[in-house]
Amino acid sequence: MGEKLKIAVMGASGRMGRMLIDTILDSDKADLIGVTERPGHDWIGHDLGEALGRPPMGVPVYGDPLDLIVKAQAIIDFTTPEATLAHAALTAQARCIHVIGTTGFSDQDIAALDAAARHATIIRAGNMSLGVNLLTRLAQQVAAALDEDFDIEIVEAHHKHKVDAPSGTALMLGEAAAAGRGIELASHSDRGRDGITGARTDGHIGFSAIRGGDIVGEHDVIFAGAGERIVLRHVASDRAIFARGALKAALWGQGKGPGHFSMASVLGLA
Question: Where is the active site (predicted)?
Fold first, then answer.
C-alpha cells in the first residue's frame, strides 16, 4: 500500500466537521494530520481527541489555517464562503488539494476560486453524494428532452439551521436543467414567490426552499406539463454520504494538477 494522503479538516467542531473526522480516521488511504477552528475557539491548542472527549489522537487543533495547510497534501472545507476564500488563497500558494463543500458563493467568489485553481487542485460541489450527482445528470438529460411545455420546479428541504437558500445542491440542479435547455439560469430563475406575482413565466426554472427540524437534505426536480408530471428525487438520510464523497474527492485529486473540478469529474460523469 502506498503512502497515505495527509488531510486536514477546516472547521472541526460542527456536525459536518465531526463526520469528516470520523470518515478520515476510518480510512486506510488517508491520515488526519490536523484540524482548524475559528479564532478564540476553546479547542485551539488542544489535542483533537481530548477536545472531542475521547482518548488523545495526536491530532492538533490549529487556530491559524496557514500553520496546517503548509503541512497538508489536501484540505476538506465545509465552512463559510469568507473562510473558504481565505483558505483558497493559501492552498494556491501551497499547491494543495482543496475539496470544497461550502455553499452560498457569489459570482465574484466563484471568480476568486477560479483564480486560485490556476495553482491548486480545487474540487467543489454543492453536494458530494453519488446519488445527487447522478440526479444532476438525469435532470440535464430530461430537460434536454422536454420543451418549454414542461415547467421546471426545484423543491429542496434542509434542517432549520441552514443559512443559505436555495441550497447549493438546488442551484447545481438548476444549472444542470438550464444547461439541458440551453439557457442561462441567472436570467431564467424564479425565486421567493409571495403575494400577487402574476402567472409563471414560460421557460423559467422555479425554486422553493423548506427549512425545519433535522432534515439532512431532500431535493425534487419537477417537470410539470399539461396532464402529467415527471419527478426526479433524492433523499439524504445520513450526513456521512457527504463526508465519504469529500474523502473520495480528495483521494481523486492526487496528481491531477491545477484546475477547478466538480464531483462529476471525480465520479467519471463529466
Answer: 158 (proton donor/acceptor), 162 (proton donor)
Q: Is the peptide bond before 56 cis (omega within 30 degrees of 0)?
A: no
Helix, strand, or coil (residue 242): helix
Model confidence pLDDT, tens digit, residues 49-85: 999 999 999 999 999 999 999 999 999 999 999 999 9
To the question of whether residue 133 is assigned a binding role by annotation, the answer is no
Strands 121-124 and 97-100: parallel
Instruction: Look at residue 1 in the predicted model and tell me its pLDDT.
Output: 52
- Catalytic residue annotation: 158, 162
Is 195 one of the annotated binding-site residues? Answer: no
Q: How far is residue 71 CA from its own chain's centroid?
A: 24
Task: Dump pLDDT digits (tens) for 150-201.
Answer: 999 999 999 999 988 999 899 999 999 999 999 999 999 999 888 999 999 9
Mean pLDDT of the region 245-266:
95
Q: List the one residue out of 235, 50, 91, 61 whose CA is nearest residue 156.
A: 235
Distance CA 152, CA 158 (A): 20
CA distance 31 to 4: 6
Q: Could you tell me if 241 and 267 are in contact, meaning their C-beta atoms sit under 8 angstroms apart?
A: no
Q: In the Cβ-directed half-sphere of 166, how many Cα atoms lie within 13 Å?
A: 26
Dihedral sign from CA coordinates of 44, 49, 55, 59: negative
Q: Is 228 labelled a binding residue?
A: no
- Residue 38 is assigned to a ligand binding site: yes
Q: What is the pLDDT of residue 239?
A: 86
37 is in an annotated binding site: yes
Domains delineated in the chain? 5-124+239-266 (3.40.50.720), 130-236 (3.30.360.10)
To the question of whether residue 126 is assigned a binding role by annotation, the answer is yes
Please give the mean pLDDT across all residues of the chain.
95
